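SECTION: protein entry
WANTED: fold as C-alpha cells:
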Amino acid sequence: MVESIMQYVRKALTIIAVILVFTTIGLVSITTQTKTVNLNYYGSTKTVRTLASTIDSFLLQNKIYIDENTNLSVGYNDKIVDGMQINISDKKEYAKLDIDVMKENYIPMVAKYEEVVESIPFDEETKDNPDIDEGTTQTVQEGVEGRKSTSYIVRYSDNKEINRSEIASEVLSQARNKVVEVGTRVTVSRSALVQSMISSPVDGGFREYDIALPVDQQQYAYNICKRYGIEYELFLAMMFQESRFVATAFGGNNSYGLCQIHITNHETLRAGLGINDYFDPYDNMTAGAYLLSTYLEAGRKRVPDDPNTAIVYGLNAYNMGEGAYYSLCYSKGIIDRDYSTSVINLRNTLISTGGLHE
C-alpha cells in the first residue's frame, strides 16, 4: 500500500518538473524577444519595451496615430531592433517666440469706447402725375436726412488705430425721402392752321348731328370742310366708315386717328400743313379733309360733267390711294366699290335720320 502511494508521488513530481522546464524555456524565449525602443514623441522622450516585430505593430500597440502632417523617422514596415531610435514630430513649423525680444519691442495697446453720430442720406422718389405737362416736374416733399449713432471699441497701438469693432447701432431719426412728381400729360402741338380755326364760329349752315363726335369737333369739321370745299355730311360719313369716330383708332395698315391717315402721307402733311400729331382729332380732321378734297378734285378732272362719279372716284382714291385705284379699278372700268357705296349710303342715312350709330 505504501509502495503504491510512493509511485503516485514520484509520477506527480515528474509531471511538475516537466511543466517547470517548459515554463522556464517559454520565459527565456519571451525575454529574448523583448526589445527596447527609444521613442521621441513630439519632443517627449521615453524608453519603451516591446514585443512588436515591425514599426506598424509598435505604433498600433502603443496607440500612436500617424497622419499626413506627421514626420516618422522610420518606415511603417521596418523591423524593430533592440535599441532602435524612433522620432515622431509634426511636419508643420510653428513660430518660436523669443520672450526677450518681445519684451524689448513691446508697445502697450489701449482700447477706447467711441460713439459716432452720422447722417443717413435720403433717397428721391418719382411719381407720375397725369395732371401736369410732360417734361415738367414738381417737388411735393423735400428730403430730410436721418441720424444714426454707432458705438465702437477702438484699439490703439502707439497712438495709431489698429482695430475698430462695432458694438451697437441706433437710428436716432429716420430719413424722409424727397418726392418729385413727373408730368405725363401730353401737350398737343397743333398746326398753325388748326390753331387759327379751332375757335372760329360756325355760320347758320351748321347742323349738329347725333354722332359720337363732340359738338366742338363737329363744328371744327364743318369749318374745315368749308375751307376745302367738301360736303360736311360726306366728310362725317367717311370718318364713321374709317374709325367710328374713335380719335385714337390705329389701323393694322399703319393708319391713324379719326380719318385713318396712312403713314405714307405723314411726311407730306407735316411739311405742307405742319401736322405732327395724327391722334389729335383737330390735326387729323385737317389732314383728312385736305386729302379728301385733293382726291375729289382729281375725280372732277376725270369726269368734269358727272359730279356723282367724281365723288365715287374721290372716295375710292382716298381709300386705296389714287394710283392704285386708277390702275387696278378705274382704268379697267370698275368705278364703284364697296367702300364708296358704303360711305355714300352712310351720308344719306345721316342726312335723313340726323345720326349715325353702330
Summary: The longest strand covers residues 160-173. The chain has three domains: 2-90, 99-183, 192-353. The chain has a mean pLDDT of 86.
